[in-house]
């Protein structure tokens, strides 16, 4: 790290420290180098050298290993988060390294090129780095083409009387936000380019709710999540109000919603629940969450006690239940459905910054409002008793209801009074349907017996028709066969 005014001067009888090479833990080379003449050694002849002057500027050898990718990563991280310590930048850029030594070396290299500067040194002696005006311009070139929001430039302003740097502060809340992002990135939840800070969410009444941090980590199963960092400086009911505002924002219609939907929601506010999420404003801003419900919200509590966290969670669960709790499905099979409807709820999870730093953001350190056990982040966001369970239970309930109705129908199936056989579905339909019952014959017999009756009736009718169509038989008049028949009348002569 660069030396500060509080650091002692390097002793004159010490030589140059060897350069550090990752993953070595050798300290960085000093900014000011002593002369090449060591105590007790004979004086060198041959004239003066540049290294004889301790005030002569010389590029430290340990910063020659600074590469373009490392410089670009740091500029991007500082462009997004505005201020950060080397430890935070290490976790935001190269968390696989064993320490932040290469990050500190690269920062010194960027400082030589007037791209970054040290704004202040914290009480723990960690330096807080920010972009210069030139560095801010470079960060814009790296971020804006990717559609990433660049934080505001922190300009150097000095008190005209004392000469002290004005506005040089790194409050604990800002530090906690950056540390939270660093721990998420270190655990593989999100990339530095997938983070954004102070994102506004404008409500219908004009109020703007700003999220401290937004993370997009689809590869980790978290397509989007809003984070609020709380150091317990706010009342628990203020956090309930934040949950309510995010819930209200998630129910806003998109600007391109059709006129019929807009008029329906204006006249009946509850109708928004029947409007799909595809027509809502939040889907124009964020991607699908991959789960039921609105955009998930996470509270990260920092610098507090376990008792305060428990009290805050109790208030959130009780006073904010309407906004985070699921509902029962309105269905015909209500008794058979135990699944919950999360479609209109804001999934709210919480943890502490201390747990993230100690165990990692990918560990079971997250809790969901309404649940007792700590889980991993994806498990806490999932809804095992949600839509997937509902579909399974509904399918089972429907199949069971179908079997029950089939059994009841079978018990009501008529029996033939002639042969004792049960009616077929077709015969049953013939005897009960008004359009066919008049032609169904005896309604108490089955289809086979009815067919026999019809066959007999048709045979009798055919016999009658044939009998009616046959010629009459000749009458017997007493004449011999073969002789002409005598006329009944005689000719008069």
Overall description:
With 493 residues, this protein is of the alpha+beta class. It has helices at 68-81, 86-93, 101-112, 133-143, 172-186, 236-250, 259-267, 282-285, 306-319, 321-324, 353-359, 377-381, 387-411, 425-432, 434-437, 447-469; strands at 83-84, 116-121, 127-131, 157-158, 165-166, 195-202, 208-217, 222-230, 297-301, 327-328, 340-341, 348-352, 367-368. Helix 2 (86-93) packs across helix 3 and helix 2 runs parallel beside helix 5 (172-186). The protein is elongated. Residues 1-41 have low confidence and may be disordered.
Structural class: alpha+beta
Strand arrangement, major sheet: 6-7-8-9-12-13
- The counted number of beta strands is 13
Quaternary structure classification: single chain
Strand content: 5-15%
Whole-number average pLDDT?
83
- What sequence of helices (H) and strands (E) makes up the elements? HEHHEEHEEHEEEHHHEHHEEEHEHHHHH
| First-last Cα distance | 168 Å
Characterize the main sheet: 6 strands, mixed
The rough form would be described as elongated
Give the count of structural domains. Answer: 3
Helix content: 25-40%
Q: Number of helical runs? A: 16
Poorly predicted regions are 1-41
Report the C-alpha radius of gyration, rounded.
45 Å
Which key phrases capture this entry?
single chain, alpha+beta, Arc Repressor Mutant, subunit A, elongated
Secondary structure elements and pairings:
Blueprint: H1 68-81, E1 83-84, H2 86-93, H3 101-112, E2 116-121, E3 127-131, H4 133-143, E4 157-158, E5 165-166, H5 172-186, E6 195-202, E7 208-217, E8 222-230, H6 236-250, H7 259-267, H8 282-285, E9 297-301, H9 306-319, H10 321-324, E10 327-328, E11 340-341, E12 348-352, H11 353-359, E13 367-368, H12 377-381, H13 387-411, H14 425-432, H15 434-437, H16 447-469
Parallel strand pairs: 8-9, 9-12
Antiparallel strand pairs: 1-3, 2-3, 4-5, 6-7, 7-8, 10-11, 12-13
Helix pairs in contact: 1-4, 2-3, 2-5, 6-9
